[in-house]
Design a protein that fits this description.
The chain is mostly beta strands. Helix content is 6%, strand content 39%. It has one domain (2-97). The chain has one helix spanning 9-14, and strands at 2-3, 23-25, 33-39, 47-54, 65-67, 76-77, 80-82, 86-91, 94-97. The strands form two sheets. It has a five-stranded mixed β-sheet with strand order 2-3-4-5-6, with no helix packed on it. Bound molecules: zinc ion (ZN). Residues 40, 42, 44, 46, 82, 85-86 line the site of zinc ion.
Length: 98
């Protein structure tokens, strides 16, 4: 299990060695879609981006996730697959591999 620690956007971008599972969420666009940035839970240091909606799954032809709106105990549905690195769920602030 890897803790999902909410960090400031600048800290996330400036420190590529920031801890696995750290994340922040950009401001919503006109359609309410937000980009959640996360550091791959596997520990490789790679950043990933997910298209999320606060309380809804954005209707788009691209992959998207429903986010519970929490930065303290975030939950995403469905599962997150950082291809070749990690596959699991972000639930109640914990990245749990499956
Ligand atoms: Zn990785």
């Amino acid at each position: 299990m890897v803790k999902a620690v909410h960090v400031h956007k600048d800290a996330f971008h400036e420190d590529a060695s920031s801890q696995p599972g750290s994340f922040f969420v950009d401001e919503p666009d006109a359609g309410g879609v937000q980009i959640l940035w996360y550091r791959c839970p596997c520990g490789c240091g790679a950043a990933g981006v997910l298209r999320v909606g606060n309380g809804f799954k954005p209707a788009t032809d691209k992959p998207s996730w429903s986010w519970n709106g929490s930065t303290d105990a975030p939950t995403l549905v469905p599962s997150v697959h950082h291809v070749g690195h990690w596959h699991g769920f972000l639930t109640d602030g914990e990245w749990r591999s499956c």
